[in-house]
Amino acid sequence: TQALVAAMPFNPNKAAEHGFDLGLMPPAGATAKPASRLAGASTLSEAMSSAKLGSVAPEGGNAATGSLDRVRVDSSGQALTTNQGVAVADNQNSLKSGTRGSVLLEDFILREKITHFDHERIPERIVHARGSAAHGFFECYEPLTALTEAAPFKEAGKITPVFTRFSTVAGERGSKDTARDVRGFAVKFYTDAGNWDLVGNNMPVFFIQDAMKFPDLVHAVKPEPHNQMPQAASAHDTFWDFVSLMPESTHMLMWVMSDRALPRSYATMQGFGVHSYRLVNAAGESVFVKFHWTPKYGTHSLVWDEAVKISGADPDYHRRDLWERIESGAYPEWELGVQTFTEAQAEQFSFDILDATKLVPEELVPVRPIGRMVLNRNPDNFFAETEQVAFCTANIIPGLDFSNDPLLAGRIHSYVDTQISRLGGPNFHELPINAPLVPVHNNQRDGMHRQAIPRGRVSYEPNSLGGGCPFQAGAVQGFNSVAVKLQARDEQGKVRAKPQLFAEHYNQARLFFDSQTPVEQAHIAAAFRFELSKVTVPAIRQRVVSMLRNASETLAAEVAEGLNMRPLPEAMPLAIDKAIQPEISHSPALSLMARPGDGSIKGRKIAILLADGVVGQSAAAVHAALLAAGATPKFLAPRIGPVSTEDGLDLEAQASLESEPGFLFDALVLPDGASAVAGLAADAHTFEFIKDQYRHGKTILALGLGRKLLDLAGVPLALANGDGDPGLLLVKDLSEGASTAFIAAIARHRHPERETGPTRP
Ligand code: HDE
């Protein structure tokens, strides 16, 4: 028993890691491309100094360095104290005038404790309130100096620490992880030239083109103001009312109704910078750039039925997944890629690169990989790190610059502004998680919660009393904005207007839909049907379908059919008077299936069912094989705890069928042994478990007599068209290479062949 329980890939009772640099490094033997400077270094600080990072802030603490002893608290072996450091003798009873008398006002211990508690909450983020984050590093593949002088891209093997936060957008801080929603993908690079935040999403486009519309969009999608419903859902009247009056949202709606909005985990979703930014080299020359994060483990999503069920059984599904992957060493990893193009190229595109509702198809500009990000350390404290981290699109460094995207402009203002109220004043950059690695020197002073103690009497520049310090860095060392030339068409003077191409709303929505596989298209149609079935006002449903007709008649017809809408409403009038011919009509890169991943099953959760009388050897052997492949196998039985086996091996169920239902797992093993099969068959949860696994396209391995459970659950052993089901493996025992076949089938993630139509069995 001990051996198998201890063989869990992570320790759920993980102790606090006070003062250690544990977990800061890539796993032993990890191959960093190309020549890693990490080899031989035992702490990140060491690795960073060998990677020629800048000096570490002398103030003594940045969460990226791991050297946070000044602010970390280790209470082991310590007596309880007040915030003034006074030892507390009794933490159970308030001070009273006699045991039954009134509580005394002088009880400063009680008052301090309650007062602090009363103020423990800060406002949640207005959007992206629910998130999870981790520390890690970015490693540069090769110098990118021809294009940019940005610090992380200077040398092959250069390491830059990062802190990355993933989030849902609409739900509140305590809402569920698996809502249909966009996911935030925000990366803080602690570079040796200051902090750079790449604040992106898991979709490369956005709903609106101008920041002016953002408060409207957010008000429309958030719970409705009169009754505060529904939580973490776009399936309601106000959202669809708004977007159906904003046809520029059509492209983004395709993404949000696709399985992209239901990621299987943060580790299996892409990330995008969305806007066009600029890369600037030392000579001041610049090109446009779009940033892409591509997950090493492939892009994998949930199906809707699965997402709905998970949100009930484990609202922390993605948070738990990220935490457990890191604890088990199956570190999430992404490749950073860039699409770079010149002003002249941009002029030729059939869309405007300042329009955040458009992407640059990879067929037009390929994505060039420039480095990788590995997340390998969980935060010590959720509030201090994940909640207090403050990302901001304005945080850029020399070598980067903005484009004139009007959505980006609004963001450059919004983030600092919102953080001033969320984090209580202008000094949140001093919080350890936000502090840059490089020292900060300026004449900003005071404000709420100031930590730094600036010395001397000079707080202005120019000065002579402070020897002129801190002085302007000058054009060579300091940040310079690209001197972009105004073009003739910009010389209209002040206008509240958009460029003409912003009025073309449907070409890329069509491109996206037409580039999906049939299963993905069916899921998009089903998502529109579901969401619009929650819309109570028929005119809004009609308006959405009339908008969809401009993007895809096929999709519009399918959605209308699902809503019993006959005849089809007229197509919405176009906002642009001339047809814009797109460059391409098909982009395979837009399908989730385009990135199956590295073929490993690292981080996948696999259920092995047990019951008394099970054949212990084969169950234990599958467990060992899955563990060796980097997955997280788990024994489950009708009840948690010890299970007796046919062959006398001690096994222990780590969860019950009731506590962790089937849809929480990526694959399933049905055990061998006559009495175990009878025991499992006597529990109705077993059949729910199997049916969900089957319906959701998961891989199922039945060992020996375990296949009987499939028959009892009514699972068909062949596909509807008579072909064999690639996700069902029925074997006598493990000797026939079954675990290899099982692992290969799990690596496919899901077997959509089982789906027979939009309404699915
Ligand atoms: Fe944000 N966004 N946003 N956003 N956003 C915030 O900043 C905003 C947009 C994104 O993990 C807020 O600190 C405006 C696009 C992420 O802490 C706020 C506009 C993209 C996060 C804000 C946008 C994003 C935020 C709320 C339209 C993808 C979470 C709390 C002009 C490229 C960061 C906060 C984290 C958070 C404003 C649109 C990504 C209110 C005004 C497009 C990942 O400042």
TrEMBL record:
Pfam families found in the cross-reference section: Catalase (PF00199), Catalase-rel (PF06628), Catalase_C (PF18011)
Keywords: Heme, Hydrogen peroxide, Iron, Metal-binding, Oxidoreductase, Peroxidase
Name of this protein: Catalase
Organism of derivation: Roseateles albus
Gene Ontology terms for molecular function: catalase activity
Function: Decomposes hydrogen peroxide into water and oxygen; serves to protect cells from the toxic effects of hydrogen peroxide.
Gene3D superfamilies the UniProt entry points to: 1.20.1370.20, 3.40.50.880, Catalase core domain
Cross-referenced PROSITE patterns: CATALASE_2, CATALASE_3
EC number, UniProt record: 1.11.1.6
InterPro entries referenced in this protein's UniProt entry, alphabetically: Catalase, Catalase_AS, Catalase_clade2, Catalase_clade2_helical, Catalase_core, Catalase_immune_responsive, Catalase_large_C, Catalase_sf
Key word Repeat present: no
The family this protein is said to belong to: Belongs to the catalase family.
Enzyme class: oxidoreductase
Cofactor: heme
Reaction equation(s) it catalyzes: 2 H2O2 = O2 + 2 H2O
Catalase core domain location: 81-469
